Amino acid sequence: MAGGEGPRRALLRAANALLQQRRYHAALAVIKGFRNGAVYGAKIRAPHALVMTFLFKSGSLREKLKAIAQATYAHSRNLAYFVFTYKGLMAGQSRLQGKKIPFHSFLAACIGGWLVFGENNPINSQIIMYLLSRILFGLSRLAVEKGYIPQPKQDPFPLVAALVWGTVLWLFEYHRETLQPSLQSSMTYLYEDSEVWHDLSDFLLYNKRTDSK
């Protein structure tokens, strides 16, 4: 056992020494970006998939666990691939031009988005909508910061909240098919299932009765 400690420690020292080499920093950052993308994707998706699956999906326990695992894997994989692609393209552009410029980030992310998130599926759709809402807020703040639009005299957030909720409920009531399935399920639970009950059991204890009474 003691004989194995020497080679392991030597390998660990060699690996740590490699990680300190500045000439390999860009390549190593791409690898760690892949790792961080995979871990972050799993951390974000697993609890969300767990809650949404057990709240709104039917099926056996095995089917539900399989759906959670598949959603978590897809999110983790896609985010890992995207970070790997983005950082690799950033490093390549910087090396070719000798410096980093803002357009590099836009171009690398566009290519990564096309390659990794270009397929229209529930996971990718949710991620894109999540980003889109934050982009709109970010661009609004940037426009004020750069002076393209005047600084609001009052906080515009109450108006934004009113318009967002007004629009989404109008879409749900009259154009439901335009909304993402998971949002439809959430709103059905909140606004339609609350209209139906038979007795105290499905009024307070459960959302829907499962027996044939």
Quick tags:
213 residues; mainly alpha; 3 domains
**Secondary-structure class:** mainly alpha
* Uncertain segments: none
Radius of gyration: 24 Å
Please describe the biggest sheet, giving its number of strands, its sense, and whether it closes into a barrel.
Answer: none
Shape: flat
In quaternary terms, these chains amount to: single chain
Tell me roughly what share of residues is in helical segments: over 70%
Counting H and I runs of at least 4 residues, what is the number of helices?
Answer: 8
Mean pLDDT, as a whole number?
89
Instruction: Give the total of domains.
Output: 3
N-to-C CA distance: 68 Å
Tell me the number of strands. 0
SSE arrangement, N to C? HHHHHHHH
Protein name: PXMP4 protein
InterPro entries: Pmp4
GO cellular component, one term: peroxisomal membrane
What can you tell me about this protein's structure?
This protein has helices at 2-19, 25-56, 61-97, 102-117, 122-145, 157-174, 181-192, 201-205. With 213 residues, the protein is mostly helical. The chain folds into 3 domains: 23-118, no CATH class; 121-151; 152-201, no CATH class. The longest helix is centred in the middle third of the chain and has 37 residues, at 61-97.
